[in-house]
Specification:
mainly alpha; 70 residues
Amino acid sequence: MDQLPTPTVGSRRNEDIALDMMKFIAVTTGYGKTGSASAGFQGGAPSRPDEYAKHLIELYKQCLAAIPVK
């Protein structure tokens, strides 16, 4: 029977790291929210929740791509 690899203490999945990066960037810069972006970061100005979600998904993809493969 196949077993999932057991992560070692202190190791995190790339997806978890990318999610934390996305949350940090979105909160500190106002990425994807309506109104003016802060810290000089242009995240767009979506007018609907689905547009905001698309912005966050795109940001997550960029964060995941920025993490080196182990």
